[in-house]
Amino acid sequence: MTENENQKNLNQPQPRTGDAEGAKKPRRPMPRRKTAVPQQGETAEKAARAPRTPRKTSAAKNTRTTGGEDAAQESAPALKAGVRPPRRRSAAAAPQAETPAKAAEAKAAPAKAAKQRTAKTARTAAPQAPAQQTAAKQAPAKAARAPRAQRPQVGRRRVFPPVPQDEKPCISQTLQLVGKKPPTMRSRASAHPSRSTLRMIPLGGMCEIGKNMTAYEYGSDIIIVDCGQIFPDETMPGVDAVIPDFTYVLENRDRVRGIFITHGHEDHIGGLPYLLREFRAPVYGGRMTVELLKYKLDDRVPGLTKSCELHVVEAGETIRAGCFSVEFIHVNHSIADAFMFAIRTPIGIIMHSGDFKIDYTPINGEIMDLQRIAQIGREGVLLFVCESTNIEVPGFSKSERHVGESMAEMFADARGRIFVATFSSNISRLQQIFTAAERHGRKVALVGRSMLNVFNAANNLGYIQMKPDTLIEASQVDGFPPEQVVIISTGSQGEPMSALTRIAFSNHREIEIQPGDTVIISATPIPGNEKPIYKVINELYRRGAKVYYSALADVHVSGHASQEEIKLVHSLVRPKFFIPAHGETRMLYQHAELAHKLGVPFENIFILANGDIFEISKGSARVTGFTNGEAVLIDGSSVGEVDNSVLRERKLLSDDGVVSIALAVNARTGALAAQPVVSAMGFLYDSEHARIEAACRQHLSNAVTRIVSSGHKVKEAVASGQMQGQLRSFLYERTKRRPVVLINLIEVE
Questions:
Q1: In the sheet that 612-617 helps form, which strands lie side by side, from edge to edge?
Q2: Residues in a beta bridge with 285
Q3: In this structure, what are the phi and psi dihedrals at residue 184, rounded to the nearest 5 degrees?
Q4: Which H or E run includes 449?
Q5: What angle do CA 179, 182, 184 make, to 5 degrees?
Q6: What are the phi and psi torsion angles at 213 (to 5°)?
Q7: What is the full DSSP assignment across 586-627?
């Protein structure tokens, strides 16, 4: 047998015992035995009879069992990138060697083709020189040490496309720890950042609608944008207002160069009286904003306006404050003199949107200055902070003129008096009401203190166009026929003390609803205010009035931008970094997704919480710490002194009432000196009053007797709360209600 025939027989598979010749049966896959490769100068038959070299246990065995150190390092990133690791193979199945041409071809070809070529090479390999064998032995080691992208895809390895990870905007750590963080936290960032670091610190307006306040800081200079308030919700009984925490600003008051106000709504200026009575800083705003601020400062702190530095700024002007330059850009909103700010810093431009909409047919003023916004966008904007109030509303917001057209039709159909409830600060709405009233020969009366203040401010600035005899006093309403009167009032959100609510429930001293009156509630309910608004509407219907509200007619348009308007501004600004603001948490998330669709990478979008310290330095941005960002509650003259315990006690008092006990005991013996006196408020009904009071007196007498007989003092039992707890449990057994229990102990000689 020749050498070539011998080699051919070695490479051919042998038939299995018991198989019929020529029969095609499926065979179990068997591991391929390692074929002996003839060395130079010996025959293939001699090589086949030579003893087999023992299998190495270092690299080959580790690769099969544990994967080895290199294999472990390779498989870990493969799993992260979505690539399946190679299946385990024995050393016998590994390829013996590849020529350089074959190896290069295997790298470039798909994995399946590489596998076929490798198997073919293993079956038909020719005798190699010792130098070639050495290179072949070193090839796997070099491949293991090579970078992932350069390793040949051979053998049974299967390659899958990487699985993309879920991309999300950068969420602040503070926001993720809502409800877990202590009430007071200090910044972990440096107290004095380097000259190349820009800070933004939102103290209000994040994950909420209201009490907007933002501090921008660079080096030793700080400016503040807006300082608003928010009205309390049902979890804050007795609280008058909620304002931001000024701790960070007061600790750095000597570095504050100015306070800039975007517009005159309460959620942007309501907190200024409380801030300006702590320290003085120049305040910059539009004409309407400054006029409203004067009324508010004198109302909260008489005489405060004279000691404050208030500056009126027109659209297009730029104010220098330390290293900051703030340009006022005109925007449309539901109040006159609203602005977007272009804040120039040593490292870039910040665009702070404030509240805005794009109204192509505004009632007062001009269209939003989109051209100037586009010019600044072409310069390059480092950071864009944009409101998110109507991010859930598709399309464009309607023009204010649309409401005037609807209101004119309602005025034409009305036969009796017309009541219009709207936001007092909506000057454009007031103007349209006056215009419709004069068209139909009606006089106009204003009801509500805030309505009078805003009207006086707007009228002094010339924003209200009307005839001299159109306006009348509320006391003169009864002197005109019903078809000649229009009454503008506050209370579009169903506030308990508003003018419309008091009129609906006959609590107003001068005006009440009569059958045949028409009531127009020109506003959309703020989320959470639906119940009080519908309560007022129901009462108006009971008194015979015809009511128009947002669910029935086009009586209101929003002053905030919808999705398409926000997209337009984003496309003009084109920022590097983006922070959604002025919205609840879900709104901020949706705004972040919208910005990403418009081209902002998720790693450049940040969703912050109040108090987070956001820094931009050397082209990168991150949240470096946090400061006090909790809400401060205003209760009468108390600022920030209302804590959770007070609110909890108020809720308990409103739930089940209070029971007060007066105990008179002998100071020497500890026995009762008189019968206990039981007083209850908001707890006992008339049918159970006498029975429960008698049972309480008997229970207290027995409790005092047990305490004295056991050698303890009644004073200690009252001080520890033991007697209160026992009486509360006793009352719950009798009434299934848990009142607040107060015990007053009097010791007599």
A1: 310-312, 283-285, 256-260, 221-225, 213-218, 197-204, 612-617, 620-626
A2: 312
A3: -130, 125
A4: helix 449-460
A5: 125
A6: -165, 125
A7: HHHHHHHHHHHHTT--GGGBEE--TTEEEEEETTEEEEEEE-
Instruction: Read off the tokens for 590.
Output: 């949706």
Q: Collapsing DSSP states into helix, strand and coil, what is residue 672?
A: strand
In whole angstroms, what is the distance from residue 124 CA to residue 112 CA?
19
The angle that helices 585-597 and 563-573 make with each other, rounded to 10 degrees, is 50
Question: Of 233, 65, 296, whose CA–CA distance to 631 is shortest?
Answer: 233
Element (H, E) at 285: strand 283-285
CA–CA gap between residue 237 and residue 484 (Å, rounded): 41
SS3 312: strand
List CB contacts of 341: < 8 A, sequence separation 6 or more: 225, 260, 262, 326, 327, 328, 329, 350, 351, 352, 354
Are the CB atoms for 278 and 223 separated by under 8 Å? no
3-state secondary structure of 406: helix
Residue type, 625: G
Q: Each residue of 68-104: pLDDT tens digit? A: 444 334 444 333 334 444 444 443 444 444 444 554 4
**Kind of pairing between the strands at 620-626 and 612-617:** antiparallel
CB–CB of 245/629 below 8 Å? yes
The amino acid present at 727, given as its one-letter code, is L
Please report which residue ranges of 279-399 form alpha helices under DSSP H.
Answer: 287-300, 370-379
Say how far apart CA 712 and CA 722 lie, in whole Å: 12
> What letter represents residue 607's amino acid?
I
142: phi then psi, degrees, rounded to nearest 5: -65, -40
On whether the CB atoms of residues 583 and 591 are closer than 8 A, the answer is yes
HSE value, Cβ hemisphere, 13 Å, CA-based, for 609 = 18
User: From CA 631, how far away is CA 554, in angstroms rounded?
Assistant: 36
- End-to-end CA distance of the chain, in Å? 133
How far is it between the farthest Cα atoms of the chain?
133
Token pair, residue 667, equals: 């100071």
Report the SS3 class of residue 629: coil
Q: What are the per-10-residue average pLDDT scores of the chain (749 residues)?
A: 48 46 49 48 48 44 40 39 42 44 50 50 45 48 47 42 55 53 38 69 93 95 95 75 92 96 94 92 96 89 87 96 96 94 96 96 90 96 96 93 88 92 90 92 92 91 91 92 94 84 90 92 80 92 92 86 96 96 94 95 95 93 91 72 67 80 87 88 86 90 89 88 90 88 87
Q: pTM higher than 0.85, yes or no?
A: no
